Amino acid sequence: MSDLVVRQLVAADAAAFRDIRLAGLRLNPEAFGSTYDSEAGKSVAEFEGSIGRNFIAGAFLDNALVGVAGFYGLQGPKVSHRGNIWGVFVRPAARGQGVGRRLLDLVLGHARRQVQQVHLSVVTTNAAAIALYQRLGFIIYGTEPRALLAGGIAHDEHMMVCMLDEAAA
């Protein structure tokens, strides 16, 4: 994927971000805390607001947004050393080609300048994502049973953390 471009999303990317976010919620509802129905009614301007409040990496192939990953740092004197990764999604046609790795490399590079550790949650059945996170230095520190309920089916989630001040760059 030599023509893959990975960069931070900007306001002008809001419509494409809305499209890929809704695709992820529709295709993999078990993987996200939000739902397609709760976000489908949101305007492009609301997605632009999300881009303004978060660091969101986007992977573009032939100018089409094929993957995203979000990050935000926690606020407050006792938690400002921590951040969260959220909304990681790669379109099915672009999976298995290093897109997720490139997205997370950019997000973690940004996070290293702001926090000491990054947390995420991943559904326990997503073996490919878990393996990627572990290669990047994340460890599972707990499992939340029935963390999400999608389509009447309960899904457990692993809680993972990467100590950025200890992980290899």
Structure in words:
With 169 residues, the chain is α+β, with helices and mostly antiparallel strands. It has one domain: Aminopeptidase. Helix content is 31%, strand content 36%. Strand 2 and strand 3 form a beta hairpin.
What is the CATH superfamily classification? Gcn5-related N-acetyltransferase (GNAT)
Number of helices: 5
Q: Total number of β-strand segments?
A: 7
Task: Specify the CATH class.
Answer: Alpha Beta
- End-to-end separation in angstroms reads 22 Å
Q: How much strand content do the residues show?
A: 35-45%
Give the helix proportion (percent range): 25-40%
Shape: globular
Identify the CATH architecture. Answer: 3-Layer(aba) Sandwich
Question: Please, how many domains?
Answer: 1
Order of helices and strands: EHHHEEEHEHEE
Strand order of the largest sheet: 1-2-3-4-5-7-6
Structural class, from secondary structure content?
A: alpha+beta
Low-confidence stretches: none
List keywords for this structure.
5 helices, 169 residues, 7-stranded mixed β-sheet
What is shown here, in short?
With 169 residues, the protein is of the alpha+beta class. Helices cover 31% and strands 36% of the residues. It has helices spanning 14-27, 36-40, 44-53, 99-112, 127-135; strands at residues 4-8, 55-61, 64-73, 82-90, 117-123, 139-150, 153-163.
Element layout with pairings:
Blueprint: E1 4-8, H1 14-27, H2 36-40, H3 44-53, E2 55-61, E3 64-73, E4 82-90, H4 99-112, E5 117-123, H5 127-135, E6 139-150, E7 153-163
